[in-house]
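tl;dr need the bound structure. longer version: we got a ligand (zinc ion) that a collaborator sent over and nobodys looked at where it sits. i said id run it. heres the input, straight from their email, havent touched it
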Amino acid sequence: MKFFDFHADTIGECFLQNKRLLENDLHIDLRRAGCFSDYGQIFAIWIPDEKRSDEAFSYYRSVRARFFTEMRENASQVAFCQTPQDIEAAFAQGKIAALLSVEGGAVLGGQLERLDDLYRDGVRLMTLTWNGSNEIGHGCFAEDKSGLTAFGKSVVEKMQRLGMLVDVSHLNERGFYDVAAYTDRPFLASHSNAKIIDNPFATARNLTKEQIGVLIDRKGLIGVNLCMDFLGNGDDTGMDAVLRQIVYFLDLGARENLSFGCDFDGCTVHPDLAGISRIPSLFDYLLQHGISEAVLRDIFFANGKRFLVANLQKL
Ligand SMILES: [Zn+2]
């Protein structure tokens, strides 16, 4: 089967726990990726909210170095991709297509030029905030409920010019609507669920029906998140909870907008969803519970690939 995923923290965990991408006990490794014929993965470098300014950038550089070491050492299996052509070439050669993202605009330290550094490094997606505030705007758990800053507005504009995907996962609601106002090109919520779950995490972090409507109207993308807290409560956080999310999104008309942002190695997941080797079982479960194979193929792969091809081009 084919699979495209828009968010995983695996490379950061490889760095922090000194594990290898080829084989590890995390949620993702290259050996287990053998269960897919075509597999695209966006690897995020997560910037913790407490790292600010130069410290944030130097942390980014450390994890980045680890990412490129892994790409080099595993070049026979995985190809680092920056363009739609790179992605096509990777699949044609039977390799995993790996893209690089940064989760947390604190990496810029308030300097617009750093976006050029990120772009040169091959970063093609940036999640504007994590849970707290930074120079760009405010995350969904921040006390400040205001929208994007003036700097944030210039960041979003420049990202879209460069062909760098603007990611609103974690961003607060006013920030989300500012992104919608300040952008012409589609944007995405790389790892966000719908606000249909009653717990404090899901209430703050998941997308409202209105936000989902905006993403659909703008030809955006939404990656379904497998994190327990954003799927349900107690035991109700497994495959049935994923089905509930997908059915809700599809009912709102998001068939062409849905993908996955599993959040592997960035959160706690139900044992039934613990790692990429569980993805084929999830596909089968959803198929057995009324989602057609054509729709599933779009959600698991085609929508994500189409979104990247359309939006990675420079203007
Ligand atoms: Zn996240």
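gonna send this back to them w/ a short note. The two ends are 33 Å apart (CA to CA).
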